[in-house]
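question for whoever is on the cluster today: can someone run the full assembly for these? six chains, 864 residues total. i dont have access anymore since they changed the login thing
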Amino acid sequence: MSTPAAVHGEPRRRGRPPAGVAEQTRLAVLDAAVACFADQGYGSTSLRTIAERAGLTAGSVYHHFPSKQALYHAAYLYAFEVVYLSYEDSVVGRGSLLAELNAMLDRTSVIMETNQAMVAFISKSSAELSPRELGPLPQPVPWERFRDGMVHRAVERGELTEADARLFQRVFATLLWGLSSVGLRDPVARAECVEGLKRLLAGTLVAKAPPPALHP
Amino acid sequence: MSTPAAVHGEPRRRGRPPAGVAEQTRLAVLDAAVACFADQGYGSTSLRTIAERAGLTAGSVYHHFPSKQALYHAAYLYAFEVVYLSYEDSVVGRGSLLAELNAMLDRTSVIMETNQAMVAFISKSSAELSPRELGPLPQPVPWERFRDGMVHRAVERGELTEADARLFQRVFATLLWGLSSVGLRDPVARAECVEGLKRLLAGTLVAKAPPPALHP
Amino acid sequence: MSTPAAVHGEPRRRGRPPAGVAEQTRLAVLDAAVACFADQGYGSTSLRTIAERAGLTAGSVYHHFPSKQALYHAAYLYAFEVVYLSYEDSVVGRGSLLAELNAMLDRTSVIMETNQAMVAFISKSSAELSPRELGPLPQPVPWERFRDGMVHRAVERGELTEADARLFQRVFATLLWGLSSVGLRDPVARAECVEGLKRLLAGTLVAKAPPPALHP
Amino acid sequence: MSTPAAVHGEPRRRGRPPAGVAEQTRLAVLDAAVACFADQGYGSTSLRTIAERAGLTAGSVYHHFPSKQALYHAAYLYAFEVVYLSYEDSVVGRGSLLAELNAMLDRTSVIMETNQAMVAFISKSSAELSPRELGPLPQPVPWERFRDGMVHRAVERGELTEADARLFQRVFATLLWGLSSVGLRDPVARAECVEGLKRLLAGTLVAKAPPPALHP
DNA sequence: CATGAATGAGATTTCATTCAT
DNA sequence: GATGAATGAAATCTCATTCAT
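^ ran it for u. tokens below:
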């Protein structure tokens, strides 16, 4: 847990420098920060807590990040990168939007199990971005790339009209964000959520035409 | 903002205010708490900020709530009650699950406009409930009542099998929570979200059977 | 406990006015103050605690005493009066200094049992009189009258030389104050203390002439 | 006094002080704590006052002691150790109980002169140990060792019967505690106290057999 | 006479941050 | 690169006190 590893245990693909000791410490701090921020929120997390979880003292954190805010920003980018690389990986080679969505939902289950803190952090971050104390957060590029790629492919495949693309983007975000709120803590809830969303997307959850019966 | 002003404009005086004012003050504090907690999260919100927004001094808040934590709990119950009474109201008299869902989505738009802070607070609260700092939060009864009522009626109408009821509960939560994450700040996003979700529920967003066309 | 009664249940002798309701409340507050100050010290006792113990609210205390400090002063005079009236009573009619001392020690046992709080308060007060926060405390007249009376009678009887009178005053104070420190909480310690002091005064505790044996 | 100054005069600088200084700071805080607690009692002493007297800021005290209560406990152990080491030293080599008591009384005078604050602190502490605010205080081992040693030697020498040993312990405590209450502030009172107690112990203060004269 | 809402000052404690070692 | 003593600001909370009701 304190030596960062990619979501799936595979060696990190995009070239990170061959990790000297300093780099390892940096990653340990980032992991600790993600976990703490996810658990308690920005304001309630102290640098001392993060530092201790990473195995150093508060003062030492300043050798790696110039301020608590900067550490939050770095953790933010870090978490998005780790999680969405895994998502990108999960949809490779699927032939349809529905297949991609299903694969992604399955992967969500896995990520939530193995990287709970990162998902929780990301989920919380969207609410936390009050610029009053955090300053403007950078756009989470990996998430946008993943989302846009999926939409783009669906349009190319003809599963989505250009006009609907934007709508779908929103719905997609809604589902993912909702899922990380609802399915995060409880594995049962998580499984039911994923199953339910699959059925919803497949159109087999809600009866389209309710028995148009006699209703006073 | 920084000079405390009474809820109704005048500076507070010494001595006992006339009967009934105390309750008004309590509500003012609750409203301020909801707004501040929603904006900055529990840990980053100071009682001084809340008190000033409500027009009193920090110490006075302790006449109405015994601790910051207790204030959070009270605000939590308060927000759920206000929001879900509105939701209950929105689905009265609709004849089908889809109709109820559509009405509820429309009402969401309205609530998000007029009670942004309450929705934001509720949305955040689900992530915030780390018992380390907040203690165990009470069950949000109004939300559960609303959700269960909707499911119950759908089952009675035959739109949902008993077996699917649980799945639908989860999906329903996911959509609502996702919506409050994604559509909260930006009215355009909000509108697109609502529209997209309606289409998703109606089954007209994602093409069920992608043209199994010629794909190299 | 909250309706003040003289140490021995006898009706108070020196004329207090026939106690209207206000006077009763005043005494209840004084009793509560003595108990609280004795228990926690001046700085750690809050007016609210005292008021609650007396059955009213903090604000009401100000109808009877103009400030916390003034309440402390009043409690100080009150406790000394109650306790030393009882002491005066205990030595009436004894024929010798030793007899008076023995009677007084016995009475101490009784008072500590029935009026523990008052004794504790008096005992603590001698340390508490830092004028920084309490202002100058009035001389505790009842104590001085009791002490001086006892010495005066002893001198008249020829048990104490004029020259030793002052020394005896000091010793007397030392014994009484020591006793309230050591024997206050534990009844066994109290009994042993009283017994030991009697023996010390009688000259039968410490062997005067240690076996003048062969000591290199 | 209100501008923090280091123990040795200079204002404290940022950054880590050279080794060994930390221990000095700790002792400075303990000394300041003893002085302040003795002067004003636990509840009325603020950490800010203590810190300023020790030459640092209130927050810095928390590097050395985790809470005000813990600081009190540490000061308690510290004061007992300092004072009773001095007492132990004073009775070394005396040949009789009376000689030891006299030596101890003389030493009391000296200690009260040079370490007034410590004696006052110890004296107050016995009244202050209301566990409501201070938690359970540790046993003051140095005091018990001193007391028990003295009694033990007296019994061995045959000056005290086994049966009287317990009584003497109590009397001894009473005298010492009384002395620190009565003789603390005023040097004249102190001298008279010591002198009087010596006479009392020697049996030459109170006339044993009062002229059994004619008493109406 | 008593209440209780409110104030404003101050208490304890936490914490981001600095910097000599 | 890491430590840990120290700062100074701010946070939560308490409390003596006031005063309209």
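summary bc i know u wont read the tokens: The mean pLDDT of chain D is 87. Residues 13-19, 46-48, 58-59, 62, 67-68 of chain D lie near DNA strand E (CB under 10 Å from a C1').
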